[in-house]
C-alpha cells in the first residue's frame, strides 16, 4: 500500500501529529496539527499540494525553498505545489497545521501561483482569515467525537476560498523580504523577544534597525505582512501561552511578564486570539497532560 503524503511528513519530522483527520465528504481535506521542537527539518516533495499555517511558537528562519531564503513567524502561511521540497530551521518549539489538498483542488491552486511557470513552487503569505480559520478548524477537531462536523466543513470551505483569493492577489500579503531586509530585521525580532515585558515603540525598533521610523514600518510590514505593533502583540500572546503551559505563574504575573497593562487586558487579547480565556486555556492544557 502506498504511503500517504502526511505519513511521509510525519516520518520526516519524527513526531506524530496531535490531530489527524479528514474534513469534508466529497473531496476531503486531510488536516494535521504538529507541535514539536527541532533544529532542522527537510520536507520531501509530495504528490499533493499542501497548505502549511504557522499557528504559534518560535520563528522559522533560514528556510530554503528552491534556494531562496525565507523567515516565518506565527500567522504566516505557505502554499506548496505538488512536487515542491523545502528545508526549514525552527528557532524553538513550533505549532503548525498542514492541510493536504485533494488532487483536483491542489492542481488548480498550483496553476494560480505567480511566477511558478508550471513547475514546483512555494507561495508564502500572511492573511488573518486563513490563520484564524485554520485555528478554528484544528481546535474543533481536537474535540474528537464532540466536534461539529457541519461547522468544520463550513470553516474548511471558507479557508479554501480565502486561500484561492490570496493566490489570485485579491486578499492577504505576499511575503518576499530581501536578504538585506531579513538581516536587519532578525536583530529587531530578537530584541523584541528580550524586551516583551517593557514598552516597545516603533521609534525604538527603528533605532535597532538603523532606519527612520516611517521607512522601518514600511520595510517591516512589507517583509512580514503585519505591522511592527501587530507583531509585538502576537509575540506577547505567544509568550503568554508558553508561560501558561510551562509554568504555574499566576495569570496576573503572566500579564506583567508579557507586557500587558493588566490581567483583564491579557484576557481580552488572549480570548480574541485563541477563543478561550487564559484560565480556561491553562485548565485544558493541564487536562491534556494528565
Explain the overall architecture.
- This protein is 47% helix and 20% strand.
- The strands form 2 sheets. A 7-stranded antiparallel β-sheet has the order 1-2-9-4-7-10-11, sandwiched between helices. It has a 4-stranded antiparallel β-sheet with strand order 3-8-5-6.
- The protein is α+β, with helices and mostly antiparallel strands and 290 residues long.
- It contains 11 helices and 11 strands.
- Strand 1 (19-23) and strand 2 (29-36) form a beta hairpin.
- It folds into 2 domains: 5-174, Sandwich (Jelly Rolls); 179-289, Arc Repressor Mutant, subunit A (Orthogonal Bundle).
The CATH topology of the largest domain is Jelly Rolls
Total of DSSP H or I helical runs spanning 4+ residues: 11
User: pLDDT under 50 segments (min length 5)?
Assistant: none
The count of strands amounts to 11
- CATH class of the largest domain, anyone? Mainly Beta
Strand order of the largest sheet: 1-2-9-4-7-10-11
SSE string, helices as H and strands as E = HEEEEEEEEEHEHHEHHHHHHH
Helix and strand composition category: alpha+beta
Distance between the termini: 36 Å
At CATH level 2, the architecture of the largest domain is Sandwich
The overall number of domains is 2
Main β sheet profile = 7 strands, antiparallel
Rounded Rg: 19 Å
The coarse overall form would be globular
**What share of the residues does DSSP label as strand, in percent?**
15-25%
